[in-house]
Specification:
The chain has about 350 residues and is mostly beta strands. Helix content is about 5%, strand content about 35%. The strands form seven sheets. The protein has a six-stranded mixed β-sheet. It has a five-stranded antiparallel β-sheet with strand order 4-2-17-18-23, with no helix packed on it. Strands 9-8-13-14 form a four-stranded antiparallel β-sheet, with no helix packed on it.
Protein backbone atom coordinates (compact mmCIF):
# COMPACT_ATOMS: atom_id res chain seq x y z
CA UNK A 1 0.00 0.00 0.00
CA UNK A 2 1.24 3.40 -0.80
CA UNK A 3 1.30 5.85 2.04
CA UNK A 4 -1.80 8.00 2.13
CA UNK A 5 -0.80 11.62 1.71
CA UNK A 6 -2.48 14.69 2.91
CA UNK A 7 -0.68 17.95 2.70
CA UNK A 8 1.86 19.78 4.84
CA UNK A 9 1.68 23.42 3.92
CA UNK A 10 -0.59 25.82 5.81
CA UNK A 11 -2.84 27.95 3.68
CA UNK A 12 -5.67 30.38 4.23
CA UNK A 13 -8.06 30.87 1.34
CA UNK A 14 -11.39 32.62 1.55
CA UNK A 15 -13.96 32.33 -1.19
CA UNK A 16 -12.15 29.47 -2.97
CA UNK A 17 -12.35 25.72 -3.07
CA UNK A 18 -8.86 24.22 -2.97
CA UNK A 19 -7.38 21.60 -5.27
CA UNK A 20 -4.51 19.55 -3.84
CA UNK A 21 -1.73 18.60 -6.22
CA UNK A 22 -0.69 14.96 -6.22
CA UNK A 23 2.97 13.93 -6.70
CA UNK A 24 3.21 12.09 -9.99
CA UNK A 25 0.11 13.74 -11.49
CA UNK A 26 0.61 16.58 -13.92
CA UNK A 27 -0.82 19.55 -12.09
CA UNK A 28 -4.53 20.30 -12.19
CA UNK A 29 -4.86 18.21 -15.33
CA UNK A 30 -5.57 15.27 -13.08
CA UNK A 31 -9.06 16.72 -12.72
CA UNK A 32 -9.15 18.31 -16.16
CA UNK A 33 -7.56 21.73 -16.71
CA UNK A 34 -10.49 23.29 -18.54
CA UNK A 35 -13.23 22.14 -16.20
CA UNK A 36 -11.10 22.92 -13.16
CA UNK A 37 -10.45 26.46 -14.38
CA UNK A 38 -14.14 27.03 -15.06
CA UNK A 39 -15.18 25.60 -11.72
CA UNK A 40 -12.81 27.70 -9.67
CA UNK A 41 -13.43 30.90 -11.62
CA UNK A 42 -16.32 31.76 -9.27
CA UNK A 43 -15.79 31.71 -5.48
CA UNK A 44 -17.95 29.01 -3.91
CA UNK A 45 -16.50 28.42 -0.44
CA UNK A 46 -14.62 29.80 2.51
CA UNK A 47 -12.31 27.05 3.73
CA UNK A 48 -10.26 28.44 6.62
CA UNK A 49 -6.93 26.86 7.65
CA UNK A 50 -5.98 23.41 6.42
CA UNK A 51 -2.69 21.54 6.38
CA UNK A 52 -1.65 20.04 3.05
CA UNK A 53 1.55 18.86 1.42
CA UNK A 54 1.26 20.78 -1.82
CA UNK A 55 -1.51 23.19 -2.57
CA UNK A 56 -2.92 24.97 -5.60
CA UNK A 57 -5.89 27.32 -5.84
CA UNK A 58 -7.49 27.77 -9.27
CA UNK A 59 -4.64 27.26 -11.78
CA UNK A 60 -1.82 28.59 -9.62
CA UNK A 61 1.41 26.63 -9.61
CA UNK A 62 1.95 24.33 -6.66
CA UNK A 63 4.98 24.89 -4.50
CA UNK A 64 6.76 23.04 -1.72
CA UNK A 65 8.37 19.63 -1.81
CA UNK A 66 6.33 16.60 -0.73
CA UNK A 67 7.39 14.93 2.49
CA UNK A 68 6.98 11.24 3.21
CA UNK A 69 4.25 10.51 5.75
CA UNK A 70 4.29 7.55 8.11
CA UNK A 71 1.19 6.02 9.70
CA UNK A 72 0.68 7.02 13.31
CA UNK A 73 -0.90 4.36 15.48
CA UNK A 74 -3.12 5.66 18.27
CA UNK A 75 -4.53 2.84 20.36
CA UNK A 76 -7.63 2.90 22.50
CA UNK A 77 -6.94 3.67 26.14
CA UNK A 78 -5.87 0.57 28.06
CA UNK A 79 -8.51 -0.71 30.43
CA UNK A 80 -8.15 -2.36 33.81
CA UNK A 81 -7.02 -6.00 33.98
CA UNK A 82 -10.53 -7.13 34.86
CA UNK A 83 -11.89 -5.84 31.56
CA UNK A 84 -11.46 -9.31 30.03
CA UNK A 85 -12.70 -12.58 31.44
CA UNK A 86 -13.19 -16.16 30.30
CA UNK A 87 -16.78 -16.16 29.12
CA UNK A 88 -17.42 -19.79 28.21
CA UNK A 89 -15.77 -23.18 27.87
CA UNK A 90 -16.73 -25.65 25.10
CA UNK A 91 -15.87 -29.34 25.48
CA UNK A 92 -17.90 -30.68 22.60
CA UNK A 93 -16.32 -34.12 22.25
CA UNK A 94 -15.22 -34.48 25.90
CA UNK A 95 -11.68 -35.11 24.65
CA UNK A 96 -10.33 -31.59 24.31
CA UNK A 97 -11.31 -27.97 24.70
CA UNK A 98 -13.12 -27.30 21.43
CA UNK A 99 -13.59 -23.55 21.99
CA UNK A 100 -12.99 -20.79 24.52
CA UNK A 101 -14.88 -17.51 24.66
CA UNK A 102 -13.49 -14.26 26.04
CA UNK A 103 -15.82 -11.51 27.17
CA UNK A 104 -15.05 -7.79 27.22
CA UNK A 105 -17.03 -6.25 30.07
CA UNK A 106 -16.23 -2.62 29.19
CA UNK A 107 -17.61 -0.07 26.76
CA UNK A 108 -14.25 0.23 25.02
CA UNK A 109 -12.37 -1.90 22.52
CA UNK A 110 -9.68 -3.79 24.43
CA UNK A 111 -6.37 -4.50 22.65
CA UNK A 112 -5.34 -8.15 22.72
CA UNK A 113 -1.71 -7.74 21.71
CA UNK A 114 -0.54 -8.45 25.28
CA UNK A 115 -3.13 -11.14 26.01
CA UNK A 116 -2.63 -14.92 25.89
CA UNK A 117 -4.80 -18.00 26.48
CA UNK A 118 -3.17 -20.99 28.14
CA UNK A 119 -5.20 -24.18 27.63
CA UNK A 120 -4.38 -27.41 29.46
CA UNK A 121 -6.15 -30.77 29.15
CA UNK A 122 -5.16 -33.45 31.65
CA UNK A 123 -5.69 -37.13 30.93
CA UNK A 124 -5.01 -40.37 32.77
CA UNK A 125 -1.65 -40.47 30.94
CA UNK A 126 -0.34 -36.92 30.56
CA UNK A 127 -1.13 -33.20 30.26
CA UNK A 128 -1.58 -31.47 26.90
CA UNK A 129 -1.00 -27.71 26.98
CA UNK A 130 -0.82 -24.86 24.52
CA UNK A 131 -0.27 -21.12 24.83
CA UNK A 132 -1.96 -18.87 22.25
CA UNK A 133 -0.93 -15.23 21.88
CA UNK A 134 -3.93 -13.23 20.74
CA UNK A 135 -4.17 -10.37 18.25
CA UNK A 136 -6.58 -7.61 17.35
CA UNK A 137 -9.20 -6.17 19.68
CA UNK A 138 -12.10 -7.47 21.73
CA UNK A 139 -15.15 -5.34 20.80
CA UNK A 140 -16.93 -3.55 23.61
CA UNK A 141 -19.33 -5.61 25.76
CA UNK A 142 -18.99 -8.58 23.42
CA UNK A 143 -17.77 -12.17 23.48
CA UNK A 144 -15.03 -13.42 21.16
CA UNK A 145 -14.78 -17.14 20.42
CA UNK A 146 -11.57 -19.05 19.70
CA UNK A 147 -11.88 -22.57 18.25
CA UNK A 148 -9.66 -25.61 18.49
CA UNK A 149 -8.07 -26.08 15.02
CA UNK A 150 -9.78 -29.45 14.60
CA UNK A 151 -13.27 -27.93 14.73
CA UNK A 152 -12.70 -24.32 13.62
CA UNK A 153 -14.92 -22.94 10.84
CA UNK A 154 -13.18 -21.37 7.88
CA UNK A 155 -13.59 -17.83 9.21
CA UNK A 156 -13.19 -18.62 12.91
CA UNK A 157 -10.35 -17.44 15.16
CA UNK A 158 -8.26 -20.44 16.21
CA UNK A 159 -6.38 -21.74 19.22
CA UNK A 160 -3.34 -22.29 17.05
CA UNK A 161 -1.02 -25.04 18.20
CA UNK A 162 -3.44 -26.71 20.62
CA UNK A 163 -3.14 -30.52 20.31
CA UNK A 164 -5.90 -33.10 20.27
CA UNK A 165 -6.05 -35.84 22.88
CA UNK A 166 -5.12 -39.23 21.35
CA UNK A 167 -7.64 -42.04 21.21
CA UNK A 168 -7.58 -44.27 24.25
CA UNK A 169 -6.76 -41.54 26.77
CA UNK A 170 -9.37 -40.40 29.26
CA UNK A 171 -9.71 -36.67 29.97
CA UNK A 172 -9.80 -35.93 33.70
CA UNK A 173 -9.50 -32.13 33.93
CA UNK A 174 -9.62 -28.86 31.98
CA UNK A 175 -7.68 -25.72 32.90
CA UNK A 176 -7.88 -22.46 30.96
CA UNK A 177 -5.92 -19.38 32.05
CA UNK A 178 -6.19 -15.85 30.67
CA UNK A 179 -2.99 -13.83 30.88
CA UNK A 180 -2.39 -10.14 30.26
CA UNK A 181 1.09 -8.63 30.30
CA UNK A 182 2.37 -11.88 31.81
CA UNK A 183 -0.05 -11.87 34.75
CA UNK A 184 -2.94 -14.33 35.13
CA UNK A 185 -6.14 -12.29 35.26
CA UNK A 186 -8.72 -15.08 35.04
CA UNK A 187 -8.83 -18.86 35.21
CA UNK A 188 -11.35 -21.67 34.75
CA UNK A 189 -10.44 -25.08 36.19
CA UNK A 190 -12.81 -28.01 36.29
CA UNK A 191 -12.76 -31.78 36.65
CA UNK A 192 -14.64 -33.73 33.99
CA UNK A 193 -17.02 -35.10 36.62
CA UNK A 194 -18.28 -31.55 37.25
CA UNK A 195 -19.37 -31.17 33.63
CA UNK A 196 -22.09 -33.80 33.65
CA UNK A 197 -25.21 -32.63 31.88
CA UNK A 198 -23.72 -30.12 29.41
CA UNK A 199 -20.91 -29.66 26.91
CA UNK A 200 -20.84 -25.85 26.99
CA UNK A 201 -20.51 -23.86 30.21
CA UNK A 202 -20.81 -20.08 30.38
CA UNK A 203 -19.98 -17.47 32.98
CA UNK A 204 -22.99 -17.01 35.26
CA UNK A 205 -22.52 -13.23 35.50
CA UNK A 206 -20.08 -10.58 34.29
CA UNK A 207 -19.43 -9.31 37.83
CA UNK A 208 -16.86 -10.02 40.52
CA UNK A 209 -19.39 -12.31 42.19
CA UNK A 210 -18.82 -14.82 39.38
CA UNK A 211 -15.03 -14.73 39.66
CA UNK A 212 -14.53 -16.76 42.80
CA UNK A 213 -12.35 -19.39 41.15
CA UNK A 214 -14.87 -22.12 42.02
CA UNK A 215 -16.21 -23.48 38.74
CA UNK A 216 -19.60 -24.52 40.12
CA UNK A 217 -20.21 -20.97 41.38
CA UNK A 218 -18.77 -19.08 38.43
CA UNK A 219 -20.20 -21.07 35.51
CA UNK A 220 -23.53 -22.55 34.46
CA UNK A 221 -24.67 -24.87 31.68
CA UNK A 222 -25.53 -22.97 28.51
CA UNK A 223 -28.94 -23.46 26.97
CA UNK A 224 -28.92 -22.65 23.26
CA UNK A 225 -26.41 -20.62 21.28
CA UNK A 226 -24.89 -17.33 22.42
CA UNK A 227 -24.10 -14.29 20.31
CA UNK A 228 -20.37 -14.07 19.66
CA UNK A 229 -18.11 -12.13 17.32
CA UNK A 230 -14.64 -12.43 15.85
CA UNK A 231 -11.76 -10.38 17.22
CA UNK A 232 -11.60 -7.02 15.45
CA UNK A 233 -8.57 -6.50 13.21
CA UNK A 234 -7.73 -2.96 12.16
CA UNK A 235 -7.39 -2.45 8.39
CA UNK A 236 -4.13 -1.52 6.73
CA UNK A 237 -3.21 1.99 5.72
CA UNK A 238 -5.41 2.95 2.75
CA UNK A 239 -3.81 4.04 -0.51
CA UNK A 240 -6.01 7.13 -0.60
CA UNK A 241 -5.01 10.65 -1.57
CA UNK A 242 -7.20 13.61 -0.74
CA UNK A 243 -7.39 15.71 -3.90
CA UNK A 244 -9.86 18.37 -2.92
CA UNK A 245 -11.99 19.53 -0.01
CA UNK A 246 -14.92 21.91 0.31
CA UNK A 247 -15.53 22.12 4.07
CA UNK A 248 -17.67 25.25 4.30
CA UNK A 249 -19.91 26.07 1.32
CA UNK A 250 -21.68 29.39 1.78
CA UNK A 251 -22.87 30.54 -1.61
CA UNK A 252 -25.31 28.32 -3.50
CA UNK A 253 -26.13 30.84 -6.25
CA UNK A 254 -22.85 30.58 -8.12
CA UNK A 255 -22.58 26.79 -8.07
CA UNK A 256 -25.85 25.23 -6.88
CA UNK A 257 -24.70 21.73 -7.81
CA UNK A 258 -21.83 22.01 -5.34
CA UNK A 259 -23.70 23.60 -2.44
CA UNK A 260 -22.63 20.99 0.10
CA UNK A 261 -19.48 19.84 1.81
CA UNK A 262 -17.42 17.29 -0.06
CA UNK A 263 -14.07 15.55 -0.15
CA UNK A 264 -12.57 14.23 -3.36
CA UNK A 265 -10.26 11.23 -2.97
CA UNK A 266 -8.30 8.95 -5.28
CA UNK A 267 -7.35 5.31 -4.84
CA UNK A 268 -3.69 5.29 -5.85
CA UNK A 269 -3.24 1.58 -5.14
CA UNK A 270 -3.92 -1.54 -7.18
CA UNK A 271 -6.69 -2.99 -4.97
CA UNK A 272 -10.28 -1.87 -4.30
CA UNK A 273 -10.80 -0.15 -0.94
CA UNK A 274 -13.93 -0.66 1.14
CA UNK A 275 -14.47 2.78 2.62
CA UNK A 276 -16.74 1.36 5.32
CA UNK A 277 -13.59 0.14 7.08
CA UNK A 278 -12.48 3.76 7.56
CA UNK A 279 -13.76 7.11 8.75
CA UNK A 280 -12.74 10.69 7.94
CA UNK A 281 -11.49 13.00 10.67
CA UNK A 282 -10.85 16.74 10.66
CA UNK A 283 -9.31 19.18 13.09
CA UNK A 284 -6.22 18.56 15.20
CA UNK A 285 -4.62 15.09 15.19
CA UNK A 286 -4.89 13.54 18.64
CA UNK A 287 -8.09 15.38 19.47
CA UNK A 288 -11.20 13.52 20.59
CA UNK A 289 -13.69 12.34 18.00
CA UNK A 290 -17.04 14.17 18.02
CA UNK A 291 -20.06 14.37 15.75
CA UNK A 292 -18.67 17.68 14.43
CA UNK A 293 -15.32 16.31 13.24
CA UNK A 294 -15.92 12.65 12.36
CA UNK A 295 -17.58 11.26 9.23
CA UNK A 296 -18.51 7.63 8.61
CA UNK A 297 -17.90 6.36 5.08
CA UNK A 298 -19.45 3.83 2.73
CA UNK A 299 -18.88 2.39 -0.72
CA UNK A 300 -15.98 0.81 -2.58
CA UNK A 301 -13.42 2.83 -4.54
CA UNK A 302 -11.70 0.98 -7.39
CA UNK A 303 -7.97 1.22 -8.20
CA UNK A 304 -7.27 4.54 -9.90
CA UNK A 305 -10.80 5.83 -9.30
CA UNK A 306 -11.47 9.41 -8.19
CA UNK A 307 -14.51 9.62 -5.92
CA UNK A 308 -16.30 12.67 -4.58
CA UNK A 309 -17.73 11.96 -1.13
CA UNK A 310 -20.67 14.25 -0.38
CA UNK A 311 -22.32 12.53 2.58
CA UNK A 312 -21.67 10.16 5.44
CA UNK A 313 -22.64 6.49 5.38
CA UNK A 314 -26.02 7.30 6.93
CA UNK A 315 -26.71 10.12 4.44
CA UNK A 316 -25.88 12.94 6.86
CA UNK A 317 -23.75 15.90 5.85
CA UNK A 318 -19.99 15.42 6.14
CA UNK A 319 -18.64 16.56 9.51
CA UNK A 320 -15.67 18.73 8.51
CA UNK A 321 -14.37 21.57 10.64
CA UNK A 322 -13.44 24.87 9.00
CA UNK A 323 -9.78 24.55 9.92
CA UNK A 324 -7.18 21.97 10.84
CA UNK A 325 -6.10 18.74 9.18
CA UNK A 326 -7.90 15.99 7.29
CA UNK A 327 -6.94 12.36 7.84
CA UNK A 328 -8.34 8.83 7.85
CA UNK A 329 -8.83 6.45 10.76
CA UNK A 330 -10.19 2.93 10.97
CA UNK A 331 -13.97 2.87 11.44
CA UNK A 332 -13.69 2.69 15.24
CA UNK A 333 -10.92 5.27 15.63
CA UNK A 334 -8.39 2.82 17.10
CA UNK A 335 -5.72 3.55 14.47
CA UNK A 336 -5.15 6.82 12.68
CA UNK A 337 -3.08 7.37 9.55
CA UNK A 338 -0.86 10.43 9.57
CA UNK A 339 -1.81 13.35 7.32
Amino acid sequence: MQTMRNYARRIIAYGLAVTMMIPGIAGASALGVDSSTAYFATPVAAIGDFLFERTVARNDVASGEPTAAQPVVRLAAHTEHDALMIGALHTTDRRTVSAVELHNTTRQFVPLSDVALVVSVSTNHTDYMCRVNLQGYAPSQSSVRYYHPAVAPADGAQLQGCPSVPDGEQVTRYDVALEQSGATIDKASVAVDELAGALVWERARWTAAARTGVFAKDFRARAGEAEVTAPYETPGEPSLQILEVLPHPHSCDAAPGNCQKYVKVKNTGDQPIDLAAYRLRSGTPGSNSTVRNTSSLAGVIAPGQVLTIRAQANGAELAILRSGTLWFEDQHGLVSFSP
